Amino acid sequence: MYRTAFLDLPPLHAVAGEVQLPGSKSISNRVLLLAALSAGRTTVHDLLASDDTRVMLDALRQLGCTVEEDGAQVHITGLGGRAPHSPAQLFLGNAGTAMRPLTAALALLGGAFELSGIARMHERPIGDLVDALRQLGCQIDYLGNEGYPPLRIAHTGGVPPLKLDAPIRVRGDVSSQFLTALLMALPLASAQQDVVIEVVGELISKPYIHITLRLLERFGIAVVHDQWQRFTIPAGSRYQSPGDIHVEADASSASYFIAAGAIAAGASGQNGIKILGVGLDSIQGDIRFVEAAQAMGAQVTSGPNWLEVSRGAWPLRAIELDCNHIPDAAMTLAVMALYAQGTTVLRNIASWRVKETDRIAAMATELRKLGASVEEGPDFIRVTPPASPAHWKAASIHTYDDHRVAMCFSLASFNPAGLPVRIEDPQCVAKTFPDYFEALFSVAQAAQQHIPVLCIDGPTASGKGTVAAAVAQRLGYGFLDSGAMYRITALAATRAGLAIDAAHETAIADLARQLPVHFADGKVWLGHDDVTEAIRTEEAGMNASRVSALPAVREALVHLQHSFRRLPGLVADGRDMGTVIFPGAPLKVFLTASVECRAQRRHKQLISKGIDTTIDSLRADLEARDARDMSRSVAPLKPAQDALVLDSSHLTVEQAVDQVLVWWQERQPFVPRTQG
């Protein structure tokens, strides 16, 4: 997962391959709570690993459930009629699928509880659910603003006799989670008589209620409904674990890749993208997003637990759609509208206003940044795309701590103008799809010249490796330590039994072309082998010098270094990155420092490793090495013609990194965001 302040997506033009979706958030948290309320042990397979499921698991542990995590499996031993641990203070982040159902369940189980979350959760309404529970006789108090979390549930003397003689009434036009919460909690009160829930007003998001009913069946509760307005929980209902239960992949998350398949051309002889984990037979309502995507022009085929999507009609067709059945996935349609001919209108989306953010306002604001004309209303949004590629704008997308805003706006990077898109706070996707951007980059393709490269060259001991690695981390880019490449090649050659000489030049070059090298967490990896220390020995350095003298090996390593230019971008350090390897890089930095300063830095480094040396000898060695590097016939050490020179003699690492990033930002097309 990217934990950077922002993530810049270069222009993308194609998709190909397969993507595995994570488990459904809606199903995951429902299943966890139902398992917690049941008698017996439930093994949950393919549970979504996300912020929302984490806070639910933490809450269940606090309440006295046994929770055992085993990779993608979680074993829950439920309360089964036992009282939860009390008192307890539960922090539920921004997880509505935890806050609402837990409020209802704990109000009926009895005990003393405080339920809170992040600031945004305290802005999300819960008053209609609390009103319904108070009808029953539950004691629930607001600890902040009336109608909103945080809440206190106070039944220290046991739950009082509940008023079940009349239907429990709850509004259905604000959030379907209120009804879901009651449906999952009220079987706890149905031992002696039927329990009836009546929905006041139109029930929005019926597909999410369908999910709830299907899952209740798996745990032994057969709810009867009359036209989605009256729900009856039969007397004698009792939660019983099904033993094992599998979580479907998230159909809402599928929407981003369905859209990508509809927007992007196929690549490398492939037609579109295959999405694994969900098919058209899904119990999730958001699978009907497929119908909307097809109406706009997508070509979709399906099989058991998979979808294949490719571009059909192009440009896409504008649509006008009642989105009550796909409230979350409909956000993706608003971005697809950027690629449609005409104006797209999405209606019946009032629930967007009370989600992780006011999604109607957020979508309207960010779509306008990209050049679209947008009209918003209480329960609709109308999107007209930019009139031509020239009318598209490079935008920095504010994500409002909303995972779906971040994910759906990533699709703007397929724009016809070839402009990058910045996603602010990309880690907000952790709520439902922590590896979303990694998944996107695994199937998306960009022209090589569009994948940004930042080069940092300089003499020995200038600090270029340290600075380059830090810059890469700040940007979320890949990192290439070109100096290590020769050492790794020499190491691989010796391990393969190849003498480093002209007689084995071809064999070593063939080896170099296919080296499984990567840099991560400050370490150097050769396949699964950490070779960080192995390539820093004196012997490794001498062998690296011999390798560098073999022209075929040098050529092979050029190709290998080029292969590091992958999405979303690259920071490369060395001596010839900006002059030879990536001459077209948009930013080239030549990092230098005085010989005296470099000798002192090198001295501290060696002393810390227990290597005895003197500053004078190091200074002489550096001067001699500089002379050799600058005078060599192949790729001599010198600044690229358009490089910016940064003297780090009197700078900390942080100051040098900050300066490089300032220069990088100056080259980006994004207009700085102003936000009050």
Question: What would you say this structure looks like, in words?
Answer:
35% of the residues lie in helices and 21% in strands. The chain starts with 5 loop residues before the first strand and ends in a 10-residue tail after the last helix. It has a five-stranded parallel beta sheet with strand order 30-34-29-35-36. Strands 3-17-19-18 form a four-stranded mixed beta sheet. With 676 residues, the protein is of the alpha/beta class. It folds into four domains: 6-22 and 251-447, Enolpyruvate transferase domain (UDP-n-acetylglucosamine1-carboxyvinyl-transferase, Chain), CATH 3.65.10.10; 25-235, Alpha-beta prism (UDP-n-acetylglucosamine1-carboxyvinyl-transferase, Chain); 451-477 and 568-676, Rossmann fold (3-Layer(aba) Sandwich), CATH 3.40.50; 480-566, P-loop containing nucleotide triphosphate hydrolases (Rossmann fold, 3-Layer(aba) Sandwich). It contains 21 helices and 36 strands. Helix 1 packs parallel to helix 2 (51-62), helix 1 (25-37) runs parallel beside helix 3 and helix 3 (96-109) packs parallel to helix 5. The mean pLDDT is 93.
